[in-house]
Write a structure and sequence with these properties.
Layout (H helix, E strand, L loop, with lengths): L13 E12 L4 E10 L10 E6 L8 E6 L9 E7 L7 H6 L6 E8 L11 E6 L4 H13 L5 E7 L8 H10 L3 E7 L9 E2 L2 H8 L8 E6 L1 H13 L7 E5 L2
Parallel strand pairs: 7-8, 7-11, 8-9, 9-10, 11-12
Antiparallel strand pairs: 1-2, 1-6, 2-5, 3-4, 3-6
Helix pairs in contact: 4-5
C-alpha cells in the first residue's frame, strides 16, 4: 500500500474476541459476515482499514489468519462487517462459507493498514471488483454520516450479472447523495443489462474526460485489476502520487 495523508490518527492494533451475529450471501461466492465485538467491546478504525481473522487449528487444518477489509462504518464501534469471497481450496474462506455459523465465537486482530481517505477536498475515483467493494461500503456510509461534499465516482466491475451485488443499495445512496455517482459494469455478453459494458478499465477511460481534475483515485481488488486501473489513470493524466490502492493477493 502507498502511505497517504490520513484524516485522523491510526491507532495500534490489538486482539479481539467477537461473536458471529449474521451471515448473508451477497453472491454465489461472497458472504457478508457481521461480527459483534465482545472483548474488548469496541474498536476505533478508519474506513479502508482491515483486520486479520483467525481460524482455529483443528485435526484437519492448522490455525490460519487472513486479512479482510472492513465494510462496517467506524461509528458502529462494536461491529465488524466483512465481505468474504470463497476462494477455491482456501483454508480460511472455505471454512467461513461452509463451517462458520451464527453464534460462533471468533478471534481477530486489528485494525491494520493505511488505505484510508485523505483530508484533501479533491474529487475521488473509486475502483473495485468483487469483495473489493468492502472498504468503499465503509467509506460511503462514513462520508454520508459526516456530511461529505467531495464528489465520488465509484466504478464497480463484474464479469456477469451474478457477480453484481448491492446495486439497488448503491442506487438508493446515489439518489440521496448529490456527491455520489455509481457506475457498475459487466464485461460479459449477457443481454439483460442496460448499464456500462466492458472491462472496468475501459469504462473508466470513457468517463475520465467528464471527471474534474486534479483528482484522487482509490483502487481495491486483485493486483491485476489495480495495476491495469493505475495504468489507465496515469495514461489519462492522473498523478500517480494521487493513486492509492489495496491489492487483494
Amino acid at each position: 500500500d502507498l502511505a497517504i495523508e490520513v484524516a485522523g490518527t491510526l491507532l495500534p492494533a490489538r486482539s479481539y474476541r467477537a461473536v458471529v451475529e449474521r451471515i448473508d450471501p451477497l453472491t454465489y461466492d461472497i458472504n457478508h459476515v457481521r461480527l459483534r465485538l465482545v472483548d474488548p467491546a469496541a474498536m476505533t478504525f478508519e474506513p479502508g482499514q482491515y483486520i486479520q481473522l483467525d481460524r482455529p487449528a483443528s485435526a484437519e487444518c492448522p490455525g490460519v489468519s487472513r486479512a479482510y477489509s472492513m465494510a462496517s462504518r467506524p461509528s458502529e464501534t462494536d461491529i465488524v462487517e466483512l465481505m468474504i469471497r470463497r476462494v477455491p481450496n482456501g483454508m480460511m474462506s472455505v471454512w467461513v462459507h461452509e463451517c462458520l455459523a451464527i453464534g460462533d465465537e471468533v478471534s481477530l486482530t486489528g485494525p491494520f493498514g493505511e488505505f484510508a481517505l485523505s483530508s484533501r477536498k479533491l474529487p475521488m475515483v473509486w475502483v473495485a471488483g468483487g469483495s473489493g467493494m468492502s472498504p468503499f461500503w465503509s467509506m460511503v456510509h462514513h462520508l454520508r454520516e459526516i456530511g461529505n461534499t467531495r464528489k465520488v465516482y465509484f466504478f464497480f466491475g463484474a464479469v456477469a450479472l451474478r457477480d453484481l451485488f448491492l446495486v439497488d443499495e448503491w442506487r438508493t445512496l446515489e439518489a440521496e447523495l448529490d456527491w455520489l455517482e455509481f457506475i457498475p459494469a459487466i464485461s460479459g455478453g449477457e443481454e439483460n443489462w442496460d448499464g456500462e459494458r466492458g472491462l472496468i478499465t475501459e469504462v473508466i477511460a470513457r468517463h475520465l474526460p467528464e471527471i474534474p481534475s486534479p483528482l484522487e483515485a482509490y483502487l481495491c481488488g486483485s493486483p491485476g485489476m489495480c495495476n491495469a486501473a493505475c495504468n489507465v489513470l496515469t495514461d489519462n493524466g492522473v498523478n500517480e502520487r494521487m493513486i492509492f490502492f489495496d491489492k487483494f493477493a
